[in-house]
Amino acid sequence: MSESAGTARERILEAYTSLLMEGNERAATLDAVAALAGVSKGGLLYHFPSKEALASGLIAELDVLAAADLIKIRTSPLGPVEYFIRTSVSEGSKFDNAIIATMRLATDSPAARDALHTLRVQWHDVLYEAVGDEQLAQTILLISDGIYYNTAIMTEERYHDQNHASVEDALAVIQRLTGK
C-alpha cells in the first residue's frame, strides 16, 4: 500500500469517526464519509468495500489504540491507578474519539459492543493487578467513567478548574481506599 493510500485510509476513518460522533450511524453514510475525507466514493470503497467494513476498520483502530493505552497505563511512572484516573479526562484525543464513535455503533453492532466490553475488561484487569481487590478495581473503573462523562459534557474553558478538581478529589478518595 502506498503512502497516499495509507493517508487516504486514515482520513476515511477519521471522517467516519467524526460523523459518528456528531450524529449517529445513519449520518455516517458512505457518501458523507467520502465527502468529509476528501476522497471519491470509489476511493472509499477501495479501502472499505461496505459500511460493515468501515465499522470493522474503526473497531480495529480502537483495538490498536487500546493496546497502546494499556502499555502506557502499565508503565506510567505515576502508577496504573493514578495514570488511569488522570487520563480519564475527555480531551478529544484520537483514542477518545474512537471510543465515542464505537459507542455510537454499539447500539446496533454486537462487534462494537464486544470491543467496548473487551476494553473495559482489559482496563479492569490492569486495575485489579494494581490494587489486588476486585471490588476496588471495579469502583476505580466506575469513578473513571464518571470523570470521563463529566468532562465530555462540560467542555467549556470555565469548567476546566472544576474538572481538574474532580480528578484530584477522586485520586484522594482512591488513595484513602487503597491506603497508598
From TrEMBL:
<feature type="DNA-binding region" description="H-T-H motif">
    <location>
        <begin position="29"/>
        <end position="48"/>
    </location>
</feature>
<dbReference type="GO" id="GO:0000976">
    <property type="term" value="F:transcription cis-regulatory region binding"/>
</dbReference>
<keyword id="KW-0804">Transcription</keyword>
<feature type="domain" description="HTH tetR-type">
    <location>
        <begin position="6"/>
        <end position="66"/>
    </location>
</feature>
<dbReference type="GO" id="GO:0003700">
    <property type="term" value="F:DNA-binding transcription factor activity"/>
</dbReference>
<dbReference type="InterPro" id="IPR050109">
    <property type="entry name" value="HTH-type_TetR-like_transc_reg"/>
</dbReference>
<keyword id="KW-0238">DNA-binding</keyword>
<dbReference type="InterPro" id="IPR009057">
    <property type="entry name" value="Homeodomain-like_sf"/>
</dbReference>
<keyword id="KW-0805">Transcription regulation</keyword>
<dbReference type="Pfam" id="PF00440">
    <property type="entry name" value="TetR_N"/>
</dbReference>
<dbReference type="InterPro" id="IPR001647">
    <property type="entry name" value="HTH_TetR"/>
</dbReference>
<protein>
    <submittedName>
        <fullName>AcrR family transcriptional regulator</fullName>
    </submittedName>
</protein>
